[in-house]
Design goal:
Length: about 300
């Protein structure tokens, strides 16, 4: 199994959230990094803004106000009381960071945490701290206390595969039937943006579930997916040469390699200057598998 520290979970999460909320994509604006002050303090949270007053069709978004901060926790990340309070602090910093006083009203801000497993210890502490935990649906828990912003904790393992397959497969314990469901729903994707998000989710899921994915690859559903969806993915990647998504791929490779030390400038430039689609995809998977930068260079045949 791939070590979690080497897996870039957040690109898959961002893709999954775009797919979860795609029925409202014309109503929403996504920002994948938050700058909270002039230092700057950068926080790896997703911010989803409502462009106007509208009803969010996905149940995850029923709590949404105008400004919605979402923090994703990978399978190895902890969601304890300190992390919970830090998330609240970030939400208040986000509200207070606006150039004009009261440009954002506190009642317009919501905070969501998304994690695969239920944070049982955190729930016990929250109850002891007089928070009310209200289950609003499978895997959706509202955390309520007077004087606090609207908060929810999403337990992705408890969500239904029928409505939330994109989040459900962001796991290192994915089930065969979930992969089949993912592939089945994927075949209806037409938008190049959606296909690009789909590929981001697939790459993360595949990287941490290689054995079960290989097993599923052999069945007819996977063959149909390869014939129908893969050309769409290739088209999305090729389209990306004009909108910067390929540059994003190259930067993701460099980010993976930086876990092993400083990336030499010549190697950095070769990765950033690469425009061949298949090579970037292979390098991305290779960077997640190797143990050193030298091993990457050797296997990638970069001199």
């Amino acid at each position: 199994m791939t070590k979690d520290k080497k897996v870039q979970w957040h690109p898959g999460f961002y893709g999954a959230m775009h797919l979860e909320l795609r029925e409202n994509k014309e109503d929403l604006e996504f920002a994948e990094e938050v700058i909270l002050n002039t230092l700057p303090l950068r926080v790896d949270m997703l911010v989803v803004k409502k462009k106007h007053d509208c009803e969010i069709k996905n149940e995850i978004g029923k709590i949404f106000g105008r400004y919605n901060l979402i923090e994703y926790k990978s399978p190895s990340d902890s969601l304890n009381y300190d992390v919970f309070l830090k998330g609240i602090a970030y939400a208040y910093l986000y509200k207070s960071n606006e150039a004009h006083v009261d440009d954002i009203r506190l009642e317009e801000v919501t905070l969501s945490f998304i994690r695969e497993m239920k944070p049982v210890k955190l729930f016990k502490i929250l109850r002891n701290e007089k928070f009310i935990i209200e289950e609003k649906g499978l895997g959706i828990y509202y955390i309520i206390k007077e004087g606090y912003i609207k908060i929810q904790i999403i337990v992705s393992r408890e969500l239904s595969d029928k409505n939330h397959i994109w989040l459900n497969v962001l796991s290192n314990r994915v089930k065969e039937e979930q992969i089949v469901k993912f592939l089945d729903v994927s075949q209806s994707m037409e938008s190049l943006d959606d296909v690009n998000y789909l590929d981001s989710v697939w790459e993360v899921m595949e990287s941490v579930n290689r054995e079960i994915v290989q097993k599923v690859r052999e069945n007819e559903m996977t063959k149909a997916w390869a014939e129908i969806v893969q050309p769409k993915i290739d088209e999305a990647f090729n389209s990306g040469f004009n909108n910067g998504s390929v540059q994003g791929k190259a930067e993701a490779i460099i980010e993976l390699l930086e876990e092993y030390g400083t990336v030499p400038e010549d190697l950095r430039q070769k990765i950033l200057n690469e425009t061949e689609l298949e090579k970037l995809r292979k390098w991305n998977k290779l960077a997640a598998r190797v143990e050193t930068i030298e091993e990457f260079k050797a296997e990638a045949d970069i001199v």
